[in-house]
Every structure is written in structure tokens, then in C-alpha cells.
Amino acid sequence: MTADRAERADVTPKLTAKGVATRTRIVEQAAELIYVNGVHGTNNELLRKAAGISGSQLNHYFPDKESLVLAVITWRAEQILNLHTSEHFAGFDTIGTLREWASFYINYEHACQEGCTLGSLASEVIKADLDVRDQLTVQFDRWTDIFRGGLERMRIQGRLRADADPDRLANLLMAALQGGMLLAQIAQDTTPLSDALTAAIDHIQTFETVPVADQT
Q1: What is the distance between the alpha carbons of residues 4 and 2, in angstroms, rounded to a whole number?
Q2: pTM metric for this prediction
Q3: What DSSP letter does each residue of 174-216 carry, written as one string?
């Protein structure tokens, strides 16, 4: 079931360039409406007006709300994954890079308002009566795998001790980010996020095998 659900979300019928643009616009508008109004508060009428489409167009691309929400999850995830695999973060294979990543989110101007876009979406859609948990799991695993891969490279390169567990440390980074973002929203202050990410990276640094000054 998990594999089937993930495959379904990732498969897009062959579309013309205009069709791709229309589908993308629907997904983008749906993502914004779900963020503002929630899943139950986002209906076809609101989405048609926001995307500038007809009911038949909406039904053509997304025959039911579940297919639409699955597409929104994938779209949100791709935005984050593209950022995390870009040159901006350089592979997450040094302590310095991890701190730069933390600083990016701590200084993110919307951190106190929208938090993590994928995390906020997950907390909303998981309450809906839709079969989307598998896709959320797939996308969060993909994100965590980016951290895991960097930490594994650090261990292979001798930057981290052999007893450093990339799986557990990657989960720690993700939990610190998601929990810190939530608390930042509640407090309207990024201090909880800064504390959480700093503590997580400080813990990872306890496994390093070379002096901080030698890190690149």
C-alpha cells in the first residue's frame, strides 16, 4: 500500500505545456488555501476562483480531494528538497554547514508566522479523513535522508567517530527543526528554534574527531 500510494502521488499524466502550467497553478493555490483555511475549509469553489479555472478543469486534473492533497504534499516537499540539495548547503557534511543551515532557518523571516511549510501542512492534513499518511512519511523520509547522507559521509571521512549513528542524529535534526519551528510560531520568537537547533548540532559535534578549527 505504501509503495502504491507513493507511486500514485509521483505519477503525472502526459500534459501539454499549458496543461502543466494549469495543474501547477491549481496545486500552488490549493497549498495556499489549505494553509490559510485548512483542508476542510478549502472547497472547490474557493479553489476555482483562486486558480481561475472551471469545475471541469479541476475535475480533469484532480478528480477528488485526496489526489489534490497528495499533489500538494509532493509540491511542498519538492520545494524543500530542492533547496536542501542545492549548492546553498553544500551536502551537510561538515559541522559548519549544519550551523549555516540552522542559521538560515533561524533567520528565516516567516519562521514565526508559517513555520515549516511541510510540517504545517502535515499537521493539518493528517487530521483529515484522507489516505495521505504514506505520502507524508515518504517525503519526510526523503528530507531526513539528506541529513543522514551528510552525516554518513562525515563518518566515512573520519570527521565523526565510528559510534556516531547517522540515523539517530538525522532524526534529531529533523525533530529539533520541526519542534523548534512550532514553538517559534507559538512564542512569535525564534529563540526556541535557535535553542533546539543549536543543542542538536552541539550534540553532533561531540562525535567529531578533529578540532573545530580544522573543519572546512
Answers
A1: 5
A2: 0.84
A3: HHHHHHHHHHHHHHTSSHHHHHHHHHHHHHHHTTB-S-GGG--
Strand-pair partners of 208: 160
For residue 165, the 8-state DSSP code is: -
pLDDT in tens, 122-155: 988 888 778 899 999 999 999 999 999 999 999 9
Scanning the structure block, which residue is given the C-alpha cell 520541526?
178
126, 136 contact by CB (below 8 A): yes
Residue 186 φ/ψ, nearest 5 degrees: -65, -45
Under a CB-based contact definition with an 8 Å cutoff, are residues 116 and 177 in contact? yes
147 grid coordinates: 541529513
SS3 139: helix
Residue 160, strand partner residues: 208
Distance (Å, rounded) from C-alpha 93 to C-alpha 155?
9
> What is the DSSP-derived secondary structure letter of residue 54?
-
Chain segment 179-201, per-residue pLDDT in tens: 999 999 899 999 999 999 999 99
CA distances from 154 to 83, 96, 187 (A): 21, 12, 35
Helix or strand or coil: residue 160? Answer: strand
Give the CA count within 13 Å in the CB-facing half-sphere of 112: 9
Q: Give Dmax over CA atoms of the chain in angstroms.
A: 62
